Amino acid sequence: MSKEKGKTQNKKRKLTRQEKKQIDALIRQSKGDGKPHTAQDSIPFERMYKDGICRLANGRYSKCIEFEDINYQLAQPDDKTAIFEALCDMYNSFDASISVQLSLISRHANKDDFKNSITIAPQNDDFDSIRAEYTEMLRTQLERGNNGLIKTKFLTFTVEAKDIRSARARLARIETDTLNHFKVIGAAARVLDGKQRLEVLHGLFHPDGERFNFAWEWLPVSGLSVKDFIAPSSFRFGDGRMFQMGGKFGAVSFLQIVAPELSDRMLADFMEAENGIVVNLHIQSIDHNEAIKTIKRKITDLDKMKIEEQKKAVRSGYDMDIIPSDLATFGSEAKNLLQDLQSRNERMFLLTFLVVNMADTKRKLENDVFAAAGIAQKNNCALTRLDYQQEAGLMSSVPLGENLIPIQRGLTTSSTAIFIPFITQELFQTGAALYYGLNALSNNMILCDRKQLKNPNGLILGTPGSGKSFAAKREMTNAFLITDDDIIICDPEAEYFSLVQRLDGQVIRLSPTGKGIDGKPQYVNPMDINLNYSEDDSPLALKSDFILSLCELVIGGKEGLQPVDKTVIDRAVRNVYRPFLADPDPEKMPILGDLYNELLKQPEPEAARIAAALELYVSGSLNVFNHRTNVELNNRLVCFDIKQLGKQLKKLGMLIVQDQVWNRVTVNRAERKSTRYFMDEFHLLLKEEQTAAYSVEIWKRFRKWGGIPTAITQNVKDLLASREVENIFGATR
Description:
Structural class: alpha+beta
Largest sheet: 13 strands, antiparallel
């Protein structure tokens, strides 16, 4: 009985037709129909790792590098060639197993953020009206340019791997090589982590500038996936020629490259679109040997067709050299291509060029697509809409490394690299950034905080009437309104008086009579020193250098100071300052007359000669600098008006003002405060060797001590004639 029961249990029962239908329905329900039903399903990646690696379908992994722009369009021809060759080398470094996607994205930024970045907040003082007027000017300039658009550039590379571990090792090697290539090109680059890549995707799917809010810790608690944080409210791909993404209309087109020659300005022209655009180049390298074999086969096929045409010509009774022109053209081009691959550093690539336009209305979208098509037409190419492939085109235009469009064009390395992704370097910093005008190429605002640069020193050069003084006044006003920096001006032509007076600054007029603007005496002592004058234990070393420069201006002559002269002056300086350094009382501060008397005490005949030269400035008619300082220099905006000093005293006055500024810099350094110094007619200080050497020394020291010097001159020829000009330019970049 038990055996029969066991046989009955082991016997398989056939399913009925109804049961089979139910099982098939359940399988289909679990697998799905392979079509995306939500906005999240349309985004073609499986997982985003925290380190920035993204897993795509079919065991493919990608990583993304963001790189900055460089000044390519303004570069010299030799520099352009070097950039182009470096780009060729980078593309050649990618073998056939690596897919590369070059993404150039121009999208609208958050309007509130941009307005806040240029708004000067009121400070409840007498200058709030000026701040409001200056802010209005900045907003007008912002509307004139394209600063409402954020332009970013990405390079995404994709490899196949059996698991994340092997993919991570391979992507790390490619990442290192690619960063080195960008370093050679001169473009700053950084690898994006997972959150940064998600933020880029969020920006593309929310083109109006909606803020991105995400943290990895939110995923387990919320039960959401990363796609939920980046996906738009909806996708609609029902129309075959356009799509809807949230409240935006968009269209994806591909570039048909039919031009015999391409311009390196094509990408720049596309990126100058007023309403934002997304340009993507999918670049797939072909195995070098396979490419050569393929071209050889094509040449063989063309030769065979040529022979057939020649046979047909003989049978028809006309000259066998008369063959179709296309056949002759294709044959010669194929042979030239083979020669390039075999004898030059060229490889073959398959290129897919995609352009995405987005707008608020269908009419505006059609206008934008028409404008983009005009750019393609100008370069003898055609921009064609991706009919019924809008979803695949859009997902191929996000920097994931996934190309879902099979439309490809074969190009060599140099033909691929001619799509130069560099235009001009933008400078739009935030914080205490000052306005410096508009970029000549992009027409965008230039906002820069010189304290954030490698070196804050500046030069304003230009021909007469080109606006040097206006640029300097604008920077002074801007710095006064948004920073607490001290501002000191050396004014040889008395042209900053009105500005300084409006900002409640102090004007110190130095003249041979010693009378200031109000008729009262105004003196500045060139012998002033404070104990923080130098980093050394003794502040006398740098002060002695200044007095040597002063004496060189006083003595004059082609040869300047001789070694013995310098020794005598240095000894006298140390003797003069000894009482003050022992007891730093302002009443004991030496003046030029004390140095004169000390020189007379020295036994060397050179000392008497130097003292005789100083006599004019001590007891003679030009003794304006032989007095103790009687003006207060505590105002944060001080202008030294030296116009009335005349030709004889102007250089001396500029040097003494420079020394007073250095005193102010040393005091402010202890208070952690910056000092901005504007000096007009700077070339005058570089004519004498000792004066030039001292000015360069100060110029180099300013940065470390919190000084921000700006030199202004129209005499570029005189500036370049100085031996020290290389040091000036070297310390100003």
